[in-house]
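We emphasize that the prediction below concerns an isolated chain of 423 residues; any contacts that depend on oligomerization or on bound cofactors are therefore not represented. The input was used exactly as deposited, without trimming of termini.
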Amino acid sequence: MSTVGLVCSEPLRARQAGIGIRYAEIARRLPDYGFGVRLVAPVGDADQPEWLDEMPEGASFEVYDPGGLGRQLSGCDVVCAQGQLGNDVVLQVPDVPTVLDFYDPWLVENLHYYETLGLDPYRNDHETWLLQLSRGDFFLCSSEEQRLFYLGLLTALGRVNPELVARDPALESLVAVVPFGLPEQLPEPRLLLEERDSRVKRLLFGGLYDWYDPWTLLKALDHVDCDWRLLLIHQPGSGAPQRLFEEVQSFCSQKGWWGTRVETHDWVAFDRRFDLLRDVDVLVAPHRPSLETDLSLRTRFLDALAVGCPVVTSAGGALSRLLDQHDAGWVVPCEDELALARALNDVLSSERSGTSGRTENARRLAADYTWTRTLEPLISFLRDPSRDVTKVDYAHGLGTRSPDDPLDFRMRRRLKRLFGGAS
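Result of the prediction step, given as a token string:
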């Protein structure tokens, strides 16, 4: 039996976000294919989450040991890593075939935090991408849009070269689409929120990240023809900048909505995420036009499709394209509050015209994203892992360049370090 090392950079928690769920699900499934699994990740809670105690036979978990990853992965036949810890993998276990998972294009996401965090995240992320893209053997992404994006970066680094193309013209041995997956059998429903009032419609927005567009939704709610409650998923202390959350809170407070018609909920336990979507009437997640949107695969959309929760979103990105192509949801132009309001009224109206047909289309689309299907390219590589020998002769490093942070930002950062607080 070959052993696969899985290295997840996101801390594993009882209340888990997308990347942690992805690696928990992969670790649970690989033993079914005959692999031993060694999952390594930081732990975010005071105690190890209970679900880690329920790993299947053949799978084990270790808390990430900074500087000791080479020891923790000793004896692994192949390693699959995600995020910043991929640096440790390529530097500490350079002789093991390495899969680097770029499902989450975090460099692009973090560009949105420039005004808050300055250029340090960009410098770090850019250097990380250059290192990992020049050293990895096989790369994962979430969509065809992402695949072309990463192939462009790999071409610039010499990874797409005459020898590799001669052997593999489609470059399937270099980059594969391995999106987020869904369980083949959904867990039995359990009530998560309080009993619903049939007269009040629940709208789930999700996290207040800077690439989403809460403002168009908040304006659209003035045109929604029913009593509604908006649920925002928000985890205090998650590490992400809070500027957008604070601005939305202020806006809703001025309208008298905060705590009455708009409420926040912490992330749910990762095995209850489907129950949250069962307990709401619609998932509404508009976003602004951006590179992040173009490269995104909204994993919460997939979960919603699986349980029959209607999805309303903006145009842009792989999932919006699929929703439109399969008539499996409501896709409206970006920043069009009236179009968004019309879609919400369509979904939430008592007649629900066209909703049942789209719900069935959504379930059919979700069936294409079971873990059994999405993991196929990864399983194929793990069964016959290999090093990309062409990188030795062709791959080359590019330097990361950026100007200094603006003077006013450097002064604010220095004051914050000296005196604390939100200077």
